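User: I'm designing a mutation panel for Aspartate aminotransferase and want to avoid disrupting the core. Could you give me a predicted structure to guide residue selection? Please restate the sequence first so the numbering is unambiguous.

Assistant: Good idea. Sequence first, for numbering, then the predicted structure tokens:
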Amino acid sequence: PEQWIKISEACKQRQLFCFFDMAYQGFASGDVNRDAHAVRYFVESGHNICLAQSFAKNMGLYGERVGTFSIICENEEEASRVLSQLKITVRPMISNPPIHGARIAAKILGDPVLRAQWLVDVKGMANRIITMRDQLKELLIRAGSQRNWDHIVNQIGMFCYTGISPEQVDRLIKEFSIYLTRDGRISVAGISSKNIEYLANALHQVTK
């Protein structure tokens, strides 16, 4: 929170317009409200922000690509002008986006029972991701790795930057059939109790 205060002050001093990308709300802390703190703080502090928000991951609607785009405006007149420009921009790009996923998201958020269940599910997924991070670090140490893997548990969210080199990434792909981006980023959500030991041993082999 203290860092966001400083960032907010810096943005005001430089008269910056802030764009928030919220693709994994709830997966950082397990609490969707806590993960929205920065956005809400900026709005409360008087910033006119825009927010790109996705429900593809935290609602399990990845194939639907559902989300929202919100812009904070000064008044209703400005909001009307902004909406008009957005429609002009969107029209040649996607015209009418699919409505199926949007209706599912609206149903979940609009029904108290479904929303409560969704919050439980998000918390469960976040906890599982945190557990996988802890176990991966522990298994790397147990495998005999002398590297510092603290960053695995210090990072948050669905993805983890392992800190390995592009050459080590290539070895993981070619020798162990473990696929990740060349900057060493892996999907923690793709780690399970069935493959985590294999992953830890492979990481150890390419980094020792």
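For picking mutation sites, this is relevant: The mean pLDDT is 95. DSSP finds nine helices and five strands in the chain.
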